[in-house]
């Protein structure tokens, strides 16, 4: 493996030297002494995100999250004051919300200040006429949804990590949720944002998108993973809870007819809220464990929802017809209903992986002309990256669909990796490298909705090209000339 394609897991080489106690004292004047931690306590209380990288390093006593100080602001004004302090003293700042990421993006591996936004969780304004809401970044997605549901409303952003993920973190990582096929990824939910720039200036971006007043600046910060500014408020669109949900399940002989059924559904103007196509391994070893329906082949689960039952029935009928014409055999709708009720169990024991396993999800997105080849190339590359004696399993589904294409969500798991940290990292990274390069070479974008973080940073130049990466670096340099926000992230 060449050095340029091996993630850097050590302490950032540009780490600044400063008196952590003096910084903590100044931060306490801004946010209050009860909201500042320093030294070992700062790292113990905030160990890092939920990536395998975080867990395996902590297990070996070499934590990735290396902040010197943690500050927990309660307002935009306090965030601005902290960034002014950091700029004056040239201290790195890493914002974090729910720390539910799986790529290492919110780990403060360059030390400095971990900016904990979790206490900024107010709903600032709810507009029931326009169905919009302005919410602060620390609001947990599940809590937000429950508050809205009590009023008959929905955020419609249902990530697997809803119990831990914050709204701000979802925006920063350009996240997605199980309803994205109809309601879009987080970028489609966001109308506007309030952002604190490096240096402490606060900017309120245009109140609605799709305007004719220059480039869409709000989208610049979505997916920037904290490298360009700290989002302190987000205005999102809502909808009323659907009146009706219908579930459909089909069995296919092979993945290709299922992909074709999905393509025909999406390119004909239909928009099911959920459409998940599982390959055989994922159907038998993942979905089956939750629904207990005797699944033995590629399986598609569809959910259609809406406010008008007649339209829901009509859309479901057309989806059934398309799947049938592609050779699909309809299964009991209870499979879809059971999946919906248990959709979060996959992220808890005994379904969720735990150490000493090695695991990772690689989610690549492509248009319909390339997606089948992407599936075969990526899964084959992953399987070929390690000796079969390690008993690695790869389970893949397609769960986010667009009018132009879809994505693959292959998750690999090795029951027990090497005991040595470096050997375990080498094995993990070799699989990630094989999958990432195979995805790019097959015509895909290497990540659909989990972000870049530390894990995929070495591949940003391959993905964007030298000129594209240069453009991104110029944007970063113009907004954050001192390189203080999340240094080293996004491959910069």
- What is the CATH superfamily of the largest domain? Uridine Diphospho-n-acetylenolpyruvylglucosamine Reductase, domain 2
Helical segment tally? 16
Low-pLDDT stretches are none
Count of extended strands:
19
Mean pLDDT across residues: 95
Strand content: 15-25%
CATH class of the largest domain: Alpha Beta
For the record, give the distance between the C-alpha atoms at the N and C termini, rounded to a whole number.
Answer: 21 Å
Structural class: alpha+beta
The helix content is 25-40%
* CATH architectural arrangement of the largest domain: 2-Layer Sandwich
Task: Please tell me how large the radius of gyration is.
Answer: 22 Å
- Approximate shape: globular
- Indicate the CATH topology of the largest domain: Uridine Diphospho-n-acetylenolpyruvylglucosamine Reductase, domain 2
| Overall number of structural domains | 4
The major sheet is characterized as:
8 strands, antiparallel
Produce the secondary structure layout.
Blueprint: H1 20-31, E1 36-38, H2 39-45, H3 52-59, E2 69-71, H4 76-89, E3 93-96, E4 113-116, E5 123-127, E6 132-135, H5 141-149, E7 153-154, H6 167-172, H7 180-183, H8 186-189, E8 190-196, E9 202-204, H9 217-221, E10 230-237, E11 239-240, E12 244-252, H10 255-267, E13 274-278, H11 280-291, E14 298-306, H12 309-325, E15 329-331, H13 334-341, E16 358-361, E17 364-367, H14 371-384, E18 393-398, E19 405-414, H15 421-441, H16 460-479
Parallel strand pairs: 2-4, 3-4
Antiparallel strand pairs: 1-2, 5-6, 6-10, 7-11, 8-9, 8-10, 12-14, 12-15, 13-14, 13-18, 16-19, 17-19, 18-19
Helix pairs in contact: 1-4, 10-12, 14-15
């Amino acid at each position: 493996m060449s050095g340029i394609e091996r993630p850097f897991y050590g302490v950032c080489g540009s780490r600044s030297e400063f008196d952590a106690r003096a910084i903590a004292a100044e931060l306490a004047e801004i946010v209050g002494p009860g909201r500042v931690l320093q030294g070992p306590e700062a790292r113990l209380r905030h160990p890092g995100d939920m990536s395998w990288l975080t867990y395996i390093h902590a297990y070996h006593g070499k934590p990735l999250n290396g902040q010197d100080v943690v500050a927990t602001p309660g307002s935009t004004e306090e965030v601005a004051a902290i960034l002014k302090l950091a700029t004056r003293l040239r201290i790195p700042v890493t914002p974090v919300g729910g720390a539910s990421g799986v790529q290492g993006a919110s780990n403060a591996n360059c030390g400095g200040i971990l900016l904990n936004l979790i206490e900024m969780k107010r709903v600032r304004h709810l507009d029931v006429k326009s169905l919009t809401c302005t919410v602060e970044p620390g609001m947990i997605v599940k809590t937000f949804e429950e508050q809205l549901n009590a009023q008959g409303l929905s955020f419609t952003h249902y990530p697997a990590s809803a119990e831990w993920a914050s709204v701000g973190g979802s925006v920063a990582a350009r996240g997605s949720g199980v309803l994205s096929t109809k309601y879009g990824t987080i970028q489609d939910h966001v109308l506007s944002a309030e952002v604190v720039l490096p240096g402490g200036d606060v900017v309120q971006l245009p109140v609605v998108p799709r305007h004719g007043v220059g480039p869409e600046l709000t989208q610049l910060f979505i997916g920037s993973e904290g490298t360009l500014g700290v989002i302190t408020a987000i205005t999102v669109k809502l909808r009323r809870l659907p009146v009706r949900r219908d579930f459909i399940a089909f069995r296919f002989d092979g993945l290709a007819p299922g992909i074709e059924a999905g393509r025909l559904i999406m390119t004909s103007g239909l928009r099911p809220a959920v459409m998940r196509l599982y390959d055989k391994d994922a159907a038998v070893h993942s979905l089956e464990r939750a629904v207990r329906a005797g699944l033995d082949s590629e399986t598609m689960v569809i959910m259609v929802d809406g406010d008008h039952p007649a339209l829901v029935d009509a859309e479901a009928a057309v989806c059934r017809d398309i799947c049938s014409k592609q050779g699909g055999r309809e299964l009991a709708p209870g499979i879809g209903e059971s999946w919906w009720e248990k959709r979060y169990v996959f992220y808890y024991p005994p379904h969720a992986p735990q150490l000493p396993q090695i695991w990772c999800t690689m989610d690549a997105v492509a248009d319909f002309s390339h997606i089948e080849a992407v599936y075969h190339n990526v899964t084959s590359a992953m399987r070929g990256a390690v000796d079969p004696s390690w008993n690695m399993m790869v389970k893949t589904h397609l769960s986010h669909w667009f009018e132009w294409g879809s994505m693959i969500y292959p998750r690999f798991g090795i029951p027990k990796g090497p005991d040595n940290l470096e050997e375990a990292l080498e094995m993990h990274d070799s699989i990630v490298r094989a999958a990432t390069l195979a995805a790019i070479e097959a015509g895909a974008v290497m990540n659909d909705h989990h972000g870049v973080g530390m894990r995929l940073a070495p591949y940003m130049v391959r993905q964007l090209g030298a000129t594209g990466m240069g453009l991104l670096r110029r944007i970063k340099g113009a907004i954050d000339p001192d390189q203080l926000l999340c240094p080293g992230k996004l491959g910069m």
